[in-house]
Design brief:
Length: 73
């Protein structure tokens, strides 16, 4: 499944990141395989989404979240 399909308060482990579409800055912020991610909030109209990645809080667009594969824990 991909990051954009998580529900609020779901926790997951990042399995794969499509480095061709995900900016380097996102990878530097912790979007790499093996890191934990939690969906905290979804903005009105379902975009963007607000996430917690390794104690950092980050907001990203759903279009970008579709490029990150996760496994719910």
């Amino acid at each position: 499944m991909t990051l954009d399909s998580l529900q609020i308060n779901d926790k997951a482990v990042i399995v794969n990141v499509n480095v061709d579409h995900v900016p380097l800055k996102m990878i530097e912020l912790g979007f790499i395989a093996g890191n934990f991610v939690e969906l905290l909030h979804v903005a009105p109209f379902n975009d963007p989404i607000y996430l917690k990645v390794n104690d950092s809080h980050i907001s990203i667009r759903k279009e970008l979240a579709k490029e990150i594969s996760v496994e719910i824990i």
